[in-house]
Every structure is written in C-alpha cells, then in structure tokens.
Amino acid sequence: MPQKRVILAVFAHPDDETSAAGATMARYVREGVDVHVATATRGELGALGTNGLVITREDLPKVREQELRSVLQIYGANPPILFGYRDQEVERAPFEEVIAKILAVMRLVQPDVVITFGPLGISRHADHVAIHMATVDAFHRYRHATDREPRLFFTSIPAETAERFELNLFGPEVNPTVLIDTKETVALKVKALRTYRSQEDAQWLAEVFEKQAPAVEAFHQAYPPIANGEVANGFW
Q: Is the per-residue pLDDT at 98 higher than 80?
C-alpha cells in the first residue's frame, strides 16, 4: 500500500497559512493528502476585532487560536501545532531552539512537501523572516535523515500582483515555479479568511479574493531547484 502523502506548512501567525496557501491546502486535502500546519505564535499583537467584534488584548491569543482551529477544520486539515512563542518575539528566540521545534514536527509528521515563507516573508515581518530561516535549516536537516525525498516550497506572488499591491519584493517571492489550480477551493479560502473575524487584514483579503477570485495560488520550489523557466501545476 503506498504511503499517504503529507504536507507541512510552517508559518508565524494564525491566518498566515490561509493568506498564502489556504486554497491549496484545501485542494490537497480533497485529494487525500494529510495536511498539517505549524504556527509559531498566537498573534498576540494583532487587531482587536472587526465589524463590531471587540476583543481584549488578554483574550486575543485564545480567540486567534480558536479561529485557526476552526479554519483548519474548514479545510479538513489536522489540528494546528503551536510553538508557543509570543508575537514579534520569534526573531529574538534562540535560533537553534526554533529550528529544533520545527525539526521535531518534521520528524513527527514526515512531510513530503514543506511550505513556508520566502526570504522576505512577503511583508518583511521579522517573525516571518525568522520562520523562513529556521524552516529552511530544519528542512535540510530533515531531508538528510529521511528516505521520503521531501520538497521545499516558498509562498510566492506573480510580479504583476506584487506591483499592484505595492509589495517591494524580489527573488523567489515574485518568481513562481508552481501554479496550483484552486478554482474549486478558493471559496473555502474566502470562508476561512472570514472566520478570522478578529483581523482586519483577513477581512480585507476575503473581499479581494471574493471580487477577483484568482484561480491559482503561486509557490517557488526552493528544493530541489528546477530549471529556469519551468512552471509546474502541482507539488507532485
């Protein structure tokens, strides 16, 4: 019997996974892939509610964790794995400690595909960049110790999209090498973004995706590298 394929997405805050790869995760769950999400923080410093919802700073971590759990249920993914760092403190945590937490998850779930931020973290948020660096390091340690031949992907945005939203990005983050057809699951992504009622950015993104309904999510295959100019339509 063939091994079940496994995807592990590693991000910094609740809603990062959905903004970057929600429709892709939902699609692969439908195809029978085992999807896991590891999140470094509970987003303690995020917004305090939208559309009349008012949340105290003290309650926000619990609210955002529950939102994340609800979102992963929408996708049919596994419950989240939380590292327990505070928002905006990942970059100050001991680097080897962060790597060790990510590597422990990789050893536990044995992913064939790992998804994380690119080098600039899309928004250049320090936690995003720290998670990128630690995940890349952990991935290479993991791949040397497994026979699964795992692949590493960075979230990416087509250059014209980055320009439209005035994102100052370059390199792999505006050089997609994988375009995932998500027209059947983008509605789930919008529903998931709406579930993040605590966060203004998530509500704004939900409106963007409702109006534009992009049919693909973009990624850059970081390992193994693929030939320049090649664009795949899936992780496998």
A: yes
